Amino acid sequence: MTMHDGQVTVSTGTVATLVEEQFPQWSGEAIRLLPSTGTVNAVFRIGNDLSARFPLRPADAAETLAVLEQEARASAELAQVSRFPVPEPVALGKPGAGYPMPWSVQTWLPGTVASDADPSGSEAFAEDLAAFIAALREAETRGRLFSGEGRGGALPHHDHWMAKCFEESEGLLDVPRLRQVWSHFRTLPRTGADVMSHGDLIPGNVLVAGDRLSGVLDTGGFGPADPALDLVSAWHLLLPGPREVLRRTLDCDDLEWERGKAWAFQQAMGVIWYYSESNPAMSRMGRRTLDRVLESMK
């Protein structure tokens, strides 16, 4: 089942043709579609060292190229400051072989995504995650501010989206209670200046080896945002004990911590209903995060 209206389909045959035509140095490498709960790209492994990402939502080729170029710059910048391995940009491909948009190639990282190897009870993992977030926060914004797109700015700017989420969640969730929760979260004032943030620290974007953080994926959104934004990881990834370790290590005050919870709530509310049929694993992730947020408010 497709996740988005007009979603583009990509096959291993198409990818093999694109690689052969545009990057003959990798011709003959094994092409494998990677199982993923991701919602934005289809991801294929090229040989042992590379991965290719193909946008799923149809868009103008020139606009897609501009987005991919920006993501490559952001990923390269994050790689310079991260204390943990992250994919690094290698190349950008062109439309072809029936695929209508540009696509990207990155280095491949070993490890198991946290949605498959749950590190939620590990305090060591929480310390690693805090170290990753702290390193990003220490990076220079170079005068840049939040772009205004997506999460990371003012919570009340999401009122319209949340109203749609509540409407779509009737019959799935306790909507009257959730409306009350949002009415509290949306009033939390912003006090800190923008810091550099990953922007989407969900289980599918985090790699684990044993009970430790081994790498972070999907780094193209690296940019300035609310300092509380990356705290969504506390609710997406951690149980109460390790969650407190993360908070203590990052020295979060009550307001920043509550705003991080608000961003996690906003994200969870969106994925639960939107992917309930098309991507059940993502929907379940949202439900688990929502349950953690609500449990912390009792």
Topology of this protein?
Layout: H1 12-22, E1 31-33, E2 41-46, E3 50-55, H2 61-81, E4 89-93, E5 103-107, E6 112-113, H3 123-138, H4 159-168, H5 175-185, E7 195-197, E8 206-209, E9 212-216, E10 223-225, H6 232-237, H7 240-250, H8 254-274, H9 280-296
Antiparallel strand pairs: 1-2, 2-3, 3-5, 4-5, 6-8, 7-10, 8-9
Helix pairs in contact: 3-7, 4-8, 8-9
Write the CATH architecture name of the largest domain.
Alpha-Beta Complex
The tally of strands reads: 10
Percent helix: 40-55%
Rounded average pLDDT: 95
State the end-to-end CA separation.
37 Å
Strands of the widest sheet, in order across it, are: 1-2-3-5-4
Structure, described:
It is a single chain. 42% of the residues lie in helices and 14% in strands. By secondary structure, it is of the alpha+beta class. Helix 8 runs antiparallel to helix 9. The two termini are 37 Å apart.
Provide keyphrases for this structure.
298 residues, Aminoglycoside 3'-phosphotransferase, Chain: A, domain 2, globular, 10 strands, alpha+beta, 2 domains, five-stranded antiparallel sheet, 9 helices, 14% strand
